Amino acid sequence: MDPADLDPTRMPRHVACVMDGNGRWAKKRGLPRTAGHRAGEEALFEAAKEAVDLGIEWLTVYAFSTENWRRPDDEVRFLINVIADDLLTRRRDQLHALGVRIRFAGRRDWRVPKWVLRRMDEAAELTEHNKATTVTVAFNYGGRAEIVDAVRALVAEGVKAGKVDERALRKRLYLPDMPDPDLFIRTSGEYRISNFLLWEIAYSELVFLDVLWPDFRGEHLRAAVREYQQRERRFGLTGEQRDGDALPG
Ligand code: IPE
Ligand code: IPE
Ligand code: MG
């Protein structure tokens, strides 16, 4: 597939992705689920590279949910190691060389080992001035938890009920400077959100792909962007208003 068939004037600014299907990928090959997670890390690097090549400013990936702690202990441990050792250590310098800014979204609670938090901070610091794509890794992330945390912040700051509006809440999300995703992708043929970016995807275009995450490559990102470019986004307006470019700012 040729990136030349994408319309450069209609690129999504922010792509969010639920990287799903690692376990099934491994099972199909008679391998342990952990092998799928390792292969998934490779796919994430490929996706980040493609996002840089396509000039996508923001790529947010769901790496570990607040619900994933309920998986067997050894799988949880393996997943954390893949993220902290492979992605944040071995891969970090490659991503840095590509100009990727690495950030994290999620709860920094007691369940996340201290050494992992340290690796996250190091990766974020090393890459904070990079100007290519911002890759946000959602780790120990839950969309409901994020909204709850924002409400807690409002209450803790003593914000009066009458002053609570969408702007006030948005300002207290994990990454308030991050634009909402234009395109939301989920792989592995599952049609659900699984608690990812609930607030932020209010008007995202949803694209579901059958590919299992470890098989995801640049061509799949381009295919999702191509589908996105065929959609008509209305933001509550009529199609006619849209044609008149009366889109909300
Ligand atoms: C996605 O793959 C990775 C994480 C959820 C961390 P899965 O491990 O969910 O793979 P499937 O859905 O079982 O195939
Ligand atoms: C969502 O996938 C979480 C991540 C990809 C990190 P899951 O595999 O955990 O979602 P469900 O359980 O199938 O909804
Ligand atoms: Mg899954």
Defining traits:
globular; binds magnesium ion; alpha/beta; 249 residues; 9 helices; single chain
Write up this protein:
This protein is of the alpha/beta class and 249 residues long. It has a single domain (11-230), classed as Undecaprenyl pyrophosphate synthetase (3-Layer(aba) Sandwich), CATH 3.40.1180. The chain has nine helices and six strands; from the N terminus they run E-H-H-E-H-H-E-H-E-H-H-E-E-H-H. The protein has helices at residues 22-28, 33-54, 73-90, 92-97, 114-127, 143-156, 166-170, 218-229, 239-243, and strands at residues 14-18, 58-65, 101-105, 134-141, 183-186, 205-208. The chain has a six-stranded parallel beta sheet with strand order 3-4-2-1-5-6, sandwiched between helices. The protein is globular and about 55 Å long. The model has no long low-confidence stretch (mean pLDDT 95). One 3-methylbut-3-enyl trihydrogen diphosphate binds next to strand 2.
